[in-house]
């Protein structure tokens, strides 16, 4: 297909983002302009994302961010081939803001609109950053999702595993809260563990390890952390460091088992794939213990481990623009302006 320039819009959670991405004739991708505004400050006092506050913050910021992304890309709406906006899954208020804005631009310019599944954006990012070819495996670990997905083609995905309770990021956030650490909890738990935490001190549960399915479960871990903390009152700095290190150790072991099983299944089903790849995405991908675990797992099973730069692992609009570009290039039809946002979209 000819070179494509796509405007992407992302508003499904607590990041307002706009981006212009180029897809060249060979299928390579380049980010021309990219802006992300985090609402962390607005929500931190509440210890989590407040949907109404998020929706209002998207309304306030989105127009300016779109202008800024176009400016940085050195293009105007005339140069854009299509608009891609996240239409689910996520918080409905934010989705309405982003999708309606995308529709308005599509209506005003006469350009096609692609309503993009947020998870598809995460799933295809590795093709933008690393030019991966299909099929590959993706582990998505964020505050809202924990999924192992087989990426077979554009619009062609198989979910191999998901969490049966908490998302992994949620487990980090809840553990941090229990220990009196700040929000968001992931980075706080990682920092505490790094302060000489002893990962051997607590033998936390590793749910579903050994299970034949590829699902995850993290709520029991949180309960065990609570019990450990209660048994220690008053909890010292060293206790917190040890709990956090042991918590990360339990997660590493769980992922090693669950994802390792997924890699085996992949090599079983795709014996002809030369250099199979595992891609990681989502905010928890920032965690060093997790990265090391996945890296050594991949080394051991002959997989290439692909971790896109962190700003493209967490929520952004470049991945949404790219998903739109892939669909356009694959000849998939655009969406009608009557397309509805979906808070749930498996
Ligand atoms: O992808 P993301 O930025 O937003 C969505 O969930 O949509 O992921 C945020 C999650 C939060 O739960 C946060 O605590 C977690 O990612 N996180 C981490 C780290 N940095 C962020 N978890 C563990 N270790 C980290 N260094
Ligand atoms: Zn996300």
TrEMBL record:
Keywords: Acyltransferase, Cytoplasm, Iron, Metal-binding, Transferase, tRNA processing. It is an enzyme of class 2 (transferase). Substrate binds at residues 140-144, 173, 186, 190, 287. It is found in: Cytoplasm. The keyword Electron transport does not apply. Pfam families: TsaD. Required for the formation of a threonylcarbamoyl group on adenosine at position 37 (t(6)A37) in tRNAs that read codons beginning with adenine. Is involved in the transfer of the threonylcarbamoyl moiety of threonylcarbamoyl-AMP (TC-AMP) to the N6 group of A37, together with TsaE and TsaB. TsaD likely plays a direct catalytic role in this reaction. Belongs to the KAE1 / TsaD family. This is tRNA N6-adenosine threonylcarbamoyltransferase. It comes from Sinorhizobium americanum. The lineage of its organism: Bacteria, Pseudomonadati, Pseudomonadota, Alphaproteobacteria, Hyphomicrobiales. The gene is gcp.
